[in-house]
Amino acid sequence: MVFWKASCPVRDQHVFITGGSKGIGLAVAEEVLRRGARVTIAARNRDDLSKARASLAAACPASRGKIHTVAADTTSVDQLHAAAQSAEGALGPVDVVICNAGLSLPGLFSDSSLENFQRQADVNYLGTVKTIKAFLPGMLERRQGHICIISSALAICGFAGYSSYAPTKWALRGLADCLRNELAGTGVGMSIGYPPDTQTPGFASENELKPKLCLAANAALGSEVFPAEKAGRVACSIVQGIERRAYHISSPDFGQTLLMDSMTSLSPKVLPLALSVLLAPVTNIVLSLLRWRMDRAVVKARQGGAS
């Protein structure tokens, strides 16, 4: 849902996207190309990058000379700095960094290995920290730029099956809140997005690992799952948020946007203030009902022998 017009279009800007070879990252790359940006996509697999480049070139024929790909693992400081040099050497200084690379390994706390906790923390949280570290000094020196962290709906609503994943996404919210305030007056902006469930290759792999309790809680929440063909809609909401220089990027799932707005703390509201105040009583009632439904669903699943 759009409440403000774009104030900083991405047209003619260089956008760098981690995890850009598939899913939402690839959809975001296509969206910024359609809007006239130059784009670098980074991912670990070179074959995936080649396929992504061909896909982007076919979808955006006018983008010739505006697409660059670079193989990089966001857990490696050296690879990220090399990726930054490669991107800026090919398409000029990076104006917008979108930290999209992530990993989800669902499982109940009692069943999840410490290695799974460590791996997701390394990719989701520290990988984002390392990506920002690679680009922020140049942005501060130029006194312009924008950083967008792609978090998750699990950063605002944790439930069974995500004890090793959700905390890494909550950590991203804490990081973004601190940087938003720290970067005020520098010319460098911050955004954080919480994409809803979208049918992507990563989401399909995630579903294979979900325990029954996770599925029960998820179903009780009744959140919308966006089919693959609507990944562009999710990507559009992210790019629109960046162009508006919104801090919290509203979701195409309005129920999720209401939840985001209820958890902004000292950061800017998601909805216009008057609307936020008007909806607050209803939002609190709805959230209480959803919490009851979610807990009840898990209890019933356990009574049925689910784990």
| CATH architecture type | 3-Layer(aba) Sandwich
For the record, the CATH class is Alpha Beta
Distance between the termini: 37 Å
Could you please say which CATH topology applies here?
Answer: Rossmann fold
What percent strand?
A: 5-15%
Number of strands: 7
Spatial ordering of strands, largest sheet: 3-2-1-4-5-6-7
Could you name the CATH homologous superfamily?
Answer: NAD(P)-binding Rossmann-like Domain
The ordered H/E elements are EHEHEHEHEHEHHHEHH
Fold and architecture overview:
This protein is α/β, with parallel strands linked by helices. The chain has a single domain (14-303), classed as Rossmann fold (3-Layer(aba) Sandwich), CATH 3.40.50. 52% of the residues lie in helices and 11% in strands. A seven-stranded parallel β-sheet has the order 3-2-1-4-5-6-7, sandwiched between helices. Helix 1 crosses helix 8 (231-244). The longest helix has 31 residues, at 273-303. The radius of gyration is 19 Å and the shape is globular. The relative contact order is 0.13.
Strand and helix map with partners:
Blueprint: E1 14-18, H1 23-34, E2 38-43, H2 46-59, E3 67-71, H3 77-91, E4 96-99, H4 114-142, E5 145-150, H5 166-182, E6 188-193, H6 201-209, H7 212-221, H8 231-244, E7 248-249, H9 254-261, H10 273-303
Parallel strand pairs: 1-2, 1-4, 2-3, 4-5, 5-6, 6-7
Helix pairs in contact: 1-8, 3-4, 4-5, 7-10
Key traits:
alpha/beta, seven-stranded parallel sheet, about 300 residues, globular, 7 strands
